[in-house]
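Entry 12.
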Amino acid sequence: KLSYERALTNWHQSAELCASLIGAGHDKYDNDPSGFTMRYGHKFFVDNNYKKSLMGFYLRPEIVYSHYNYNSNEKGGRVLSSEIAFLGTIGYQYVYKRFLADFWVGAGYATGTPAETYYHHGFELWHYLNTVNTNIALSFSIRLGICF
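Predicted 3D structure (tokens):
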């Protein structure tokens, strides 16, 4: 995954773009996925930290598109999964000199062709408490980076 975030003229907002290739190895389900994921998020920082941009608690609406094929255990052969998710996330981003740590959780709506594992390399579909809902997307992450 490669992400780029840019503070906007208003220091309390930023735009973030992330692209990732799926297939550099095996995923946690060992089904040899191959494809890509793209995501765009717009961060609204809610605490007034005038000393540093890109730092503090934030709210972020984002859109995530995941497109890949994988070895299916249920159907046999390669199967295509193409999903788009609209998420609302809340997080905290910490900046120390040139290093950045970002933590977030989020949920939203997903649509498309789900994978049988419900894992889409950028978000996961609801499959908890013995229930499945392929329209509920969940996301959480810890990201480390370098500021330029």
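Annotation: Residues 5 and 16 are 4 Å apart (CA to CA). DSSP finds no helices and eight strands in the chain.
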